[in-house]
Write a structure and sequence with these properties.
Number of helices: 15
CATH topology: Rossmann fold
CATH architecture: 3-Layer(aba) Sandwich
Number of domains: 1
CATH superfamily: Alpha/Beta hydrolase fold, catalytic domain
Largest sheet: 8 strands, mixed
Strand content: 5-15%
CATH class: Alpha Beta
Radius of gyration: 21 Å
Strand order of the largest sheet: 1-2-4-3-5-6-7-8
Helix content: 40-55%
Order of helices and strands: HHHEEEHEHEHHEHHHHHEHEHH
Shape: globular
């Protein structure tokens, strides 16, 4: 999930990629020209260049394989929603149409295939509805370049309109932020169409304030982070290429593990999470992060009138647990569930425990609604 801290990790990954390629090529050129005489320099340059394109292999091989590794699974039951801003939303359905509904909203960076485990483990009892945020996955980006939280909250209302019975809304990371914005913009829907909320690894304010190194990043937001994000919009094609090279040399795998997991993830989970995060346009991702800087739904918390489950990984460094603790304290009908061990991607690393928590909460909400 691309949060401000993840943006810095990506920047570090890109710098490592440039350094590996540049050093390897430069040393080889110097050896070829005879400036560096020893063949050791040749071997070093070849090693650096090989690592630049194959470094991901030893990193993945150091991780254990899992019995059920995530895949980019898609449904054949699809509906496309055309929005006033020119975007089109890919909505997918899993499970029985007669079952109670869960609507899952993913975070910023990946797409709805991140719900691999939730779709498999919950669709036996629920109708699971997932959607790609416009600009990501199979959803078409908005023509007016609006990537605000308010835009996505309005899109969520359109997805909710596809469902007749009251549903459970679940959001992860930026998805949780979208749910809080939805609560402010459409409070009447909480009484009519929403039976409960699940906020996973989310925050109530500018995520820079609730991440690791928050004081430093907050001081750097205007003078450094924002200019770099605008630069990323301009250099988007180049950064997209560097992003793929960063995956090949393994630096993306390392930063993904650091920001999202606790070291207990499987080989497939790490690889899937790394790949899903580099498919999107860096320019689109940068616009979304800029929109998050304006986010603040602190005043909304006290007005949420439906049962709310707040879930957080105990070791989450992208959105630190104190943010979830405050949400659970200020939302009137909220309770907190901590996944331990678990990081920002505990929904994948601790997928079975995550699904059972969601199942139990959803059943209790829907019974209360009846």
């Amino acid at each position: 999930m691309l949060m401000p801290l993840d943006f810095l990790f990506r920047l570090l990954s890109n710098l490592i990629t440039i350094a590996l390629l540049s050093c390897g090529a430069y040393i080889y050129y110097q050896w070829y020209e005879g400036v560096l005489v020893s063949d050791r320099w040749l071997y070093l340059s070849i090693g650096l260049l090989l690592w630049s394109f194959l470094g991901f292999l030893p990193i993945l091989l150091l991780h254990r394989s899992g019995r059920d590794e995530p895949k980019p699974m898609r449904s054949d039951r699809v509906q496309r929603l055309t929005r006033p801003d020119g975007s089109e939303i890919q909505v997918e359905f899993y499970g029985s149409e007669r079952a109670p509904t869960l609507i899952l909203t993913h975070g910023w960076g990946p797409d709805s295939t991140v719900w691999y485990y939730a779709k498999k483990q919950l669709s036996d009892q629920f109708r699971v509805v997932v959607w790609d945020l416009p600009g990501l996955g199979k959803s078409k980006k908005p023509q007016n370049r609006d990537y605000s939280l308010e835009k996505y909250a309005r899109d969520l209302e359109a997805v909710l309109a596809l469902v007749e019975e009251p549903a459970i809304l679940l959001g992860h990371s930026m998805g949780a932020m979208i749910l809080l914005t939805f609560c402010r913009l459409f409070p009447q829907q909480l009484e009519q169409k929403v039976a409960g909320l699940v906020l996973v690894d989310g925050t109530y304010t500018n995520p820079v304030k609730t991440t690791t190194l928050n004081k430093l990043l907050l001081a750097l937001q205007k003078p450094l982070l924002q200019p770099l994000l605008y630069l990323a919009i301009v250099l988007s094609p180049l950064l997209w290429l560097i992003g793929w090279l960063s995956y090949l040399n393994g630096s993306t795998l390392l930063t993904t593990e650091l920001s999202g997991f606790t070291g207990r993830e499987t080989r497939g989970q790490l690889n899937f999470s790394s790949l899903i995060g580099i498919k999107a346009s860096p320019g689109i991702l940068a616009r979304g992060v800029l929109a998050m800087f304006k986010f603040d739904e602190t005043a909304t918390l006290k007005d949420i009138s439906v049962p709310t489950l707040v879930v957080v990984g105990k070791s989450d460094i992208a959105t630190r647990p104190f943010a979830s603790q405050r949400i659970s304290t200020e939302v009137p009908q909220a309770k907190l569930s901590v996944l331990s061990p678990g990081g920002h991607m505990a929904l994948m690393e601790r997928n079975q425990q995550f699904s059972e928590i969601i199942r139990a909460f959803s059943i209790s909400c829907l019974k209360l609604k009846k």
